[in-house]
Design a protein that fits this description.
The protein has three domains: 258 residues, TIM Barrel, CATH 3.20.20; 215 residues, 3-Layer(aba) Sandwich (Rossmann fold), CATH 3.40.50.1700; 110 residues, Immunoglobulin-like, CATH 2.60.40. It is built from 25 helices and 25 strands. The strands form six sheets. Strands 9-6-5-4-3-2-1-10 form an eight-stranded parallel sheet. The structure holds beta-D-glucopyranose.
């Protein structure tokens, strides 16, 4: 009987392989997938099924005696052949992937391929700007292309599963993982979520050259208490439904194949055992059909939370809440046999967890085509088109904060014949790439110093001074994860001497370009900060260079809003480049010298200082809005307004908004004219905000409900059109505990940032 079934499966697999070859041209139907999966399930033993739920970290290059290797506890070929693993993460070398895959496919009883996953967050071999920067482009089509390139490279290596996009809304810049998401706003966040899912997965799950996504961290991870990574989140229902959940919902609607459960307690229940999130919302309300993977070791850590009694209870609570795959902790493989034997977990519950994992492998075409072409992979990695797109993405992500006296763009030639490039990040190939750059070659990264040198040519003297170093325990995030090499910091005297040398260089030059910000590991996981000031001695360096009286341009490389209050008053030109990726140096030089015009806008509010945190534009009005009078919602010592508002960003040209028209039919049609009133071509991000004046709940003072990035030549005028349909006007009412669209009067503003002044109103009579 078993042999008969086996034969049948092999024939089906073979027939499918012959049919579809290496390149399936269309997605499989539900019925085809279902029949393959049911066939497999019938033939699988209980331990083979549990194996599919088990994912292990493998660090092939880690020293065998180091802590990283212990996390992975390298799998043996016998275990793989026995079917103990459904998936591995952190293997990125195509030859290692092929070798492991051969063991799984050739030596196992049912030939079930492995699914290799990795943190493909902002590129794989070609490193793109960090996600927060990509969101600052306000250009979903660009973001889709960037993630499609990342998917192409990852899948060429055999990594068919990206642990991204991270769609957590973050309104507290102390939280280092703000760098991995799209910032503070659910509307922009949802647009970026959809774009990333499309880019990663392509037109259908299994499209060649693409990967399956894992939307994370479900849900509420961005609201960590005190901005401390991993800390509990306390989120009201109103916030959850209106702010935190929408980007996840958008990603699921766009077809995201997997979801990663978050680490933290959400309102007292760890997300990895939270059946409200994983069953009620994800599966029942949204109809999610893929599988859920826990975050790393999160199943085992249900005991650490003080939630599960022991490892067995942890496995029970995670699987019954809806976590299908256990990342890294081996809790399922160790505990599920007992739970099945005692009947606490039923064989149906086990099958329900295995089914979507197998279905994903079937859809991804892994049964037909589990291996990669290693030399083909190398040529994909080397694609010049990928590097070009990374450069364009970095140009389009940069945000110009200040440009007094039109210091930028810099003229080439005689005016600034000598340029001092200064700062601990100016020539750092590691840092310009940002935090999730783990599979690339850092030696390929173009620093700002190199970008400037290549741009100006021999007529201009460019000299560099580091100006002190930023303290760093590990030389890179890569080393931090593997707990390998540590660095030897400079002494205080050496730092002081470097600052002095930098100031000296500035005073002998015509212009100083300071490249300051954060090292790559200061933003990202486990990288919370209590201060938003420039870390280390950078503020002192900046002030001393400014005191030379030379014109100063400040270029920022960072992954979170920083406190730039002093710089915003004393430094004439400030360009926020974020962590712009491996082509960042070229892109920054393009922007500084006018070969590209900044058009990015802030996806997150920049506070005046850390004391204003959390600060975001879409707050509610309160009974006493801040009008600068006493007894209003404000501080004694600082204005409530931010330093730079959400949506803000300058250009080398200027734009004028006029003629706002609102027409109402079954939807609300909003039109506005936008004109380039300067003398350079440039991009403007046209942003539409609404406010519902009254209803069953108070609504935010403004909410983004439409945006378009448009390009205009000098004097060119374009009409921009937005439609406000049902979705844009609805919200989850805390009073009525459901999504509503209400009769009300709405304000509408259109402009170039969240302070837009051009205003109109419309009335919704029939909800
Ligand atoms: C992070 C996830 C990541 C996983 C695997 C965890 O610590 O929270 O975002 O995907 O590690 O690297």
């Amino acid at each position: 009987m078993l042999i008969g079934t086996m034969k049948c499966i092999l024939i089906t697999i073979f027939a499918f392989a012959a049919d579809a070859q290496r390149i399936p041209v269309a997605p499989l139907t539900e019925a085809q997938v279902e029949s393959r999966v049911s066939g497999l399930l019938k033939s699988m033993t209980q331990s083979e099924k549990i194996g599919q739920l088990n994912q292990l970290f493998v660090f092939p290059e880690a020293p065998p005696d180091g802590p990283a290797a212990k996390l992975g506890l390298a799998p043996t070929d016998q275990e793989i052949a026995k079917g103990d693993y459904g998936s591995f993460l952190f293997v990125t070398d195509p030859s290692v992937i092929n070798r492991m895959q051969h063991v799984a496919v050739d030596k196992s009883r049912l030939h079930i391929p492995l699914l290799f996953g990795f943190d493909v967050i902002h590129g794989f071999k070609t490193i793109f700007p960090v996600p927060l920067a990509l969101a600052a482009s306000w250009d979903p089509a660009l973001v889709e292309q960037a993630q499609a390139v990342a998917a192409r490279e990852a899948s060429a290596a055999g990594v068919r599963w990206a642990f991204g996009p991270m769609v957590d809304i973050a309104r507290d810049p102390r939280w280092g993982r703000i760098v991995e998401g799209a910032g503070e706003d659910p509307f922009l966040g949802s647009a970026m979520a959809r774009a990333q899912v499309r880019g990663f997965q392509g037109k259908y799950l299994g499209e060649p050259g693409h990967v399956v996504t894992s939307v994370k961290h479900f849900a509420g991870y961005g609201a960590a208490d005190g901005g401390r990574d991993y800390d509990s989140s306390s989120i009201s229902d109103e916030q959850l439904w209106n702010v935190d959940l929408p980007p996840f919902h958008a990603a699921v609607e766009a077809g995201a194949g997997t979801v990663m459960s978050a680490y933290m307690d959400l309102n007292g229940v760890p997300a990895t055992a939270n059946s409200f999130l994983l069953q009620d919302v994800l599966r029942r309300a949204w109809g999610f059909r893929g599988f859920v993977v826990s975050d790393a070791f999160a199943v085992a850590n249900l005991t650490t939370h003080g939630f599960a009694k022991d490892a067995e209870d942890a496995a029970f609570r995670a699987i019954t809440a809806g976590v299908d795959m256990d990342m890294g902790s081996r809790t399922y493989i160790r505990q599920l046999p007992k739970l099945l034997e005692s009947g606490r977990v039923s064989s149906k519950q086990l099958d329900d967890a295995v089914r979507p994992i197998l279905a994903t492998k079937v859809r991804m075409g892994l049964f037909e085509d589990p291996y990669v072409d290693e030399s083909g992979a190398r040529s994909i990695f080397a694609s010049p088109d990928h590097r070009e797109l990374a450069r364009v993405a970095a140009q389009r992500s940069a945000v110009l904060f200040r440009n007094e006296g039109s210091l930028l763009p810099l003229p080439r030639g005689s005016k600034f014949a000598s340029i001092a490039v200064i700062g601990p990040l100016a020539d750092s190939q590691l840092d310009i790439r940002g935090p999730w750059a783990l599979a690339d070659d850092p030696g390929q990264a173009i620093t700002v110093l190199k970008g400037i040198r290549d741009k100006v040519g021999s007529g201009t003297r460019v000299e560099y001074a580091r100006g002190g170093e930023l303290r760093r325990v590990y030389p890179s995030m890569f080393d931090a994860i593997r707990h390998s090499r540590k660095t030897v910091p400079l002494t205080d005297e050496q730092n002081v001497a470097e600052v002095r040398a930098a100031v000296e260089l500035a005073s002998q030059s015509d212009l100083a370009i300071l490249v300051l910000g954060e090292t790559q590991e200061m933003s990202g996981e486990g990288a919370s900060r209590t201060s938003l000031e420039l870390p280390g001695k950078q503020q002192e360096l900046l002030a001393k260079v400014a005191a030379t009286g030379k014109p100063v341009v400040l270029v920022l490389l960072n992954g979170r809003p920083l406190d730039l209050t002093w710089a915003s008053q004393h430094i004439p030109a400030i360009l926020e480049a974020w962590f712009p990726g491996a082509q960042g140096g070229n892109a920054v030089a393009d922007l500084l010298f006018g070969d590209a015009n900044p058009g990015g806008k802030l996806p997150v509010t920049f506070p005046r200082n850390v004391g204003q945190v959390p600060i975001y534009y879409a707050h509610n009005l309160t009974h006493q809005p801040d009008t600068a009078a006493d007894f209003t919602s404000r501080y004694w010592d600082q204005p409530t307004s931010p330093l730079y508002p959400f949506g803000y960003g300058l250009s080398y040209t200027t734009f004028e908004f006029s003629n706002l028209r609102v027409d109402q039919g079954s939807s609300v049609e909003v039109r506005v004219d936008v004109k380039n009133t300067g003398d350079r071509a440039g991009d403007e991000v046209v942003q539409l905000y609404i406010h519902q004046q009254f209803g069953s709940a108070s609504r935010p003072v403004r909410e983004l409900k439409g945006f378009q990035r448009i390009a205009l030549t000098p004097n060119e005028k374009k009409e921009v059109h937005f439609t406000l349909g049902g979705n844009e006007l609805e919200y989850w009412s805390a009073a009525l505990r459901k999504m509503v669209r209400e009769r009300s009067v709405f304000d509408v503003w259109v402009g170039g940032d969240s302070k837009a002044q051009l205003h109109s109103t419309f009335t919704v009579l029939r909800p």
